[in-house]
Amino acid sequence: MEFAIGVDIGGTKIQFAAVNREGAIMERQLMLTEALLGPQQLVDKVLAGIEGMISNLTPGGRIAGIGIGSAGQIDFRTGSVAFAGETLPGWTGTPIKRLVEERFHIPAYVDNDVNVIAVAEKVFGAGREFESFVVIALGTGLGGAIVESGQLVRGAFGGAGELGHVSVDFNGPRCPSCGNYGCIELYASGTGIARLGAESLSAGATAAWKPNSREIIEAWLQGEPLAGDVMDRVIRALGSAVAGFIHTFNPEAVIIGGGVSETGPVFLDALNEAVQARTSAAMSKACRLLPAYVGTDAGVIGAAAQVWHYGNNR
Amino acid sequence: MEFAIGVDIGGTKIQFAAVNREGAIMERQLMLTEALLGPQQLVDKVLAGIEGMISNLTPGGRIAGIGIGSAGQIDFRTGSVAFAGETLPGWTGTPIKRLVEERFHIPAYVDNDVNVIAVAEKVFGAGREFESFVVIALGTGLGGAIVESGQLVRGAFGGAGELGHVSVDFNGPRCPSCGNYGCIELYASGTGIARLGAESLSAGATAAWKPNSREIIEAWLQGEPLAGDVMDRVIRALGSAVAGFIHTFNPEAVIIGGGVSETGPVFLDALNEAVQARTSAAMSKACRLLPAYVGTDAGVIGAAAQVWHYGNNR
């Protein structure tokens, strides 16, 4: 039996999994990232975790490849880190692919954490039937990935898909991370929802309670009016942005994943309505808004899915 | 000597040209579109114009192919019109490629008028050295085209690149053509600039003078303060949108063409400054903002350039 090893490197934890051709996790392990210990420690953890996966394999199991998804901007061609910010200090420049291949003599693929979610969708999920789709990951921030003609859109150095830094209000607040004004991430993401919540509460002159996005979404689902106003802004902003992505890419689907979207059908239905109202008829008809098929394990399954997607092993 | 015949079908005129491999126009003809006469008359004009180009060829000249750029949404694969609005009434559904190939027995390529400008840039212009770039055409409206890995991004049915219908203000006015709010076309285009000008004048309680975009740009260049305010909004809105495109595509270049951009370096310099301030450092460093290389004849030269780009005749 053949397996792909997936590694999902995030700011707080590293997930390892052995994934079969059907996308099922056969074996898994979790480590804390402890990013502040620096890049050498992180590399050691990654190599140790892969080692562990290999030695735990059932007899007769074969490793077809190792797929890695990492926070930060990754140069897919070289498999090294083009840029990583405060999430993974010192990680910039690490030649992950080379280090892993030198150690294990197995082909490795390295990409950023949202691109591998798109690969998971392409290989196992909602993207199987589509050649052209956009993935939006609504987590702490807003990440994106774009598939055109069945391939990820990468741009000059693999930085394409930073959809969180598309402006939906050129008179809006300045984005601390990119310098643009009114980036969609400032509205439709965990931190964005919390920001709008705090703004709305201070305008309402209520006590200095700072709800997080989960609390705001729960209050919204229970019909609390202030939370309703906040989520109305979130959905209008995101609806305008998604309509813009549809006009930009003419995709067959927009796939919504990440923690915020796991709120369920109420959120997606409201978003879908906002998007429909903002999209030209022909493009709207050609495009479906879908929840991500692969759930909380999308990062590690997507990391592994690279092996099946690029490895020509099918 | 080999020629490509280019045909540029617009709302008011049709341009025909015989273009050589270096992008020079060797022969040209202009017809009025008279779109209201309907699609059959339009087809007849297009065929007659091509006929004329062929019969005027110098002895020994060979036609390598016929390239057509048309207003509206074009399905490149079939070479037929997917959707054309009021600009070319009844044009939707016309199988241009088939009609032209049946008549002349020469390979024909049909695409929309902005995609062929991107092809002109790829074959003859600023895009020759780039595999990944975005073209923005600032005319009456705002059109776009996207090149990734040397190929046009087309999406589900060839509608990709409608960059004018990306929102830069989700609380802005509703766009009459697509339904989104605060589309960038409502700010940074001939009609957008005129709209902001009228708004600004009525706020200033001046007489009911309605300047067009050319007059506003001229007044801006001469230091007129009200026009300065208008153009400041235009440039901030367009700067935010272009920064968003850079974050989306990580392109090597953004190429700005169309009538508004022909204002010259003052406009492009101001836009460049606004874009730089709004773009994350790594992406900004990797991307140049350039004026379109091919000028007023970009439509017909680009139409012809399809023959050299797709024909494998190089």
UniProtKB/TrEMBL annotation, chains A, B:
Signal peptide stretch: none
Pfam family, one: ROK
UniProt cross-references to InterPro entries, sorted A to Z: ATPase_NBD (IPR043129), ROK (IPR000600), ROK_cs (IPR049874)
TM stretches of this protein: none
Gene3D superfamilies: 3.30.420.40
PROSITE patterns reported for this sequence: ROK (PS01125)
Sequence similarity: Belongs to the ROK (NagC/XylR) family.
Name under which the protein is recorded: ROK family protein
Species of the source: Cohnella pontilimi
